[in-house]
Amino acid sequence: MGVADVRLAVxxxxxxxxxxxxxxAVDGVDLAVERGEVYGFLGPNGAGKSTMVRMxxxxxxxxxxxARVAGHDVARAAGAVRRAIGVALQDAAIDPYMTGRxxxxxxxxxxxxxxxxxxxxxxxxxxxxxxxxxxDRRVGTYSGGMRRRLDLALALVHEPxxxxxxxxxxxxxxxxxxxxxxxxxxxxxxxxxxxxxTTQYLEEADQLAGRVGIIDGGRIVAEGTPGELKAQVGDxxxxxxxxxxxQERAAEAALRPFGAIVPGRSGCIxxxxxxxxxxxxxxxxxLDEAGVAAAGLDLARPSLDDVFVAKTGRHLEPEEAEGPVGxxxxxxx
Amino acid sequence: xxxxxxxxxxxxxRAVVGTLRTPQALFPSLFFPLVLMAIFTASFAAAPGRIxxxxxxxxxxxxxxxxxxxxxxLIGGTVAGAAFALDIEGGFFDRLVASPASxxxxxxxxxxxxxxxxxxxxVLFLGVGIAFGARVQGGAAGVALLLVLAGLLAVAVSGLGxxxxxRSGSSEAVQGTFPxxxxxxxxxxxxxxxxxxxxxxxxxxxxxxxxxLVEAMRAQVISSGETRTTLIGLGIAVALAAIAVxxxxxxxxxxxxxxx
Lengths: 333, 260
Description:
The complex is a heterodimer.
Chain A (H helix, E strand, L loop, with lengths): L7 E11 L5 E11 L3 E5 L6 H8 L7 E6 L2 E2 L4 H7 E4 L11 H11 L4 H14 L15 H13 L5 E5 L7 H18 L2 E6 L2 H7 L2 E6 L2 E6 L1 H8 L3 E6 L5 H8 L5 E2 L5 E5 L7 H10 L4 E7 L3 H9 L21
Parallel strand pairs in A: 3-8, 3-9, 6-7, 7-8
Antiparallel strand pairs in A: 1-2, 1-4, 4-5, 9-10, 11-13, 11-14, 12-13
Chain B lengths: L1 H19 L2 H21 L16 H31 L1 H6 L5 H29 L7 H30 L2 H5 L2 H9 L12 H9 L1 H14 L4 H31 L3
Helix pairs in contact in B: 1-5, 2-3, 3-5, 3-6, 3-8, 3-10, 5-6, 6-10, 6-11, 10-11
């Protein structure tokens, strides 16, 4: 990789990690994440996401290839990497016997803050992640969402250049998940912090990441913006179930301006909607003006799961019930 | 250098606070030694002076005190090791490693925490012993030497616990060594003098480093610090502490290489 590219926050070249017994968790990954990006690493359990993060955060030595974070080699300049990164790992690794404030003070000391600065920073962050009231309670009494927020605050103590979030919302309820997403967005927008996040949730990658790398079996199988990736699979399709099957022609005429009509089930009209959900209001209005009564509307967007299926032949989330907010499939009924 | 010291102090403080806030971790290292000390003292009150070979002491409590101190440190060491393993299991260790904290501070913090607890506990035990009539013949110098021995032993035992934690990553595995420590303790002169043992048991107790450590501590209590015994004990304590610290660093590097 030679000279460090200063525009890149994370770069990897042929990065590889083998474990004893011959298991290859990460199998030659090339990666380039620009400063200020939110990069989502999407893949199922066991795809190599966490191993990748552990190598990039200096917790595990690569067995092959190279990686630089914030311009520093993870193997040869681990100390410099550690000063530049913030890390919130899976399961919110937090000592249950300490209070949130104590942990923030400790983290500040580890980053070389003096007492006064550490205390001020802790107050600031507690406010930011809305934990002021719980600050002096032991972390063992926190809810899952509060732990994650504290975890995030701990990772932000030193205003890192690059923030690593390993499955930041796994196991969280939808409200806590949305709160965390909001915070990550704000951080990226306000401070320009580069965010490298791993997730097994399509929705999360879709909502947060500017660019997504899909990882499976230790290799990146697809990479691009969520839009690009989905476009490779196709446009969203809107299916209109007609209250009166006799109105088929009128419905077709009303829908044609929005996109190509595709074959649908009987009693239904299906149209490709390149603009997706954004076109829905106009579609409903057009149907209404044409006097077409709809019994149901179903917007099926190609999801990152469709991308995953196209690349690997398998579904990313075998049981949809485990998904975060649920797939945005039925937009209206 | 100064930063590493500040980091070590902060991590040591956290180790102490964490232990004090888990009574189930603190309880065994206080309860068992004191109870055994009480039972033995009550049972063998008349032993000194009547059993041939029993060292000259004022009373059995003076004799038993050092055994309790040492037992407390052994249990405290496994508790420290188990706490370190819990940090690894829970991921707190990863947070430390991914921070700019120096490797030495991460290890030294936990060791210093273990030593601080061991010293506090030793002072408490001495206080209890003195309250019930024990006397430290070595005076202030004797107490100081006893604390030095206690501190070194705490480094050795906590260090061994940390090595096990780093190698296994499991608090259960660390706690599993507890019976081993107990066996080591009972096959030594921690509770009874070597002079009253015979045969293979005596041989085991002779080579058991615990015997020499406890006898060096005991020398401060029952005499004014018999020089040879004290030096042997100090030598063993220093050697064990040094080996344990070296092994800690080696295990730490091994863990980062990722032997998993």
